[in-house]
Amino acid sequence: MVNKHEMEFCFYKLGMSGSFMTSLIETMFKADVDNLDLLGKAYPGLVKVIIKYRGESGYWQDLVNRWNEDNPYHKLVA
């Protein structure tokens, strides 16, 4: 099962996010550690997804697998 923050990230990866969420996620990717920490105060779940995506081996593949199980018509590729 994909949580709501992972769902937002998957929509981003599919190019289906709104302009605000797209800008927010792109800002998180550009942020240094201190600024990512500040963003995490407002968006802790989404920052956690970004951190896992960047540094946790196997996380993206696992997320893709979970997403594809729940969403057969909007497949992601790892």
What does this molecule look like?
By secondary structure, this protein is an all-alpha fold. The protein has one domain (4-70). The chain is built from 5 helices and no strands. The protein has helices at residues 4-13, 19-30, 33-42, 44-55, 59-70. It is globular and about 35 Å long. The mean pLDDT is 96.
How are the SSEs placed, and which strands pair?
Blueprint: H1 4-13, H2 19-30, H3 33-42, H4 44-55, H5 59-70
Helix pairs in contact: 1-4, 3-4
N-to-C order of helices and strands:
HHHHH
**Distance between the amino and carboxyl termini:** 17 Å
Count of domain modules: 1
Helix content: over 70%
What is the 3D shape?
globular
| Structural class designation | mainly alpha
Profile the largest sheet: none
Mean pLDDT: 96
Q: What portion of residues belong to β-strands?
A: under 5%
Q: Compute the CA-based radius of gyration.
A: 12 Å
Low-confidence stretches: none
Helical segment tally? 5
Number of strands: 0
Protein traits:
78 residues; mainly alpha; 0% strand; globular
Brief synopsis:
The protein has 78 residues and is mainly alpha-helical. The chain has five helices and no strands.
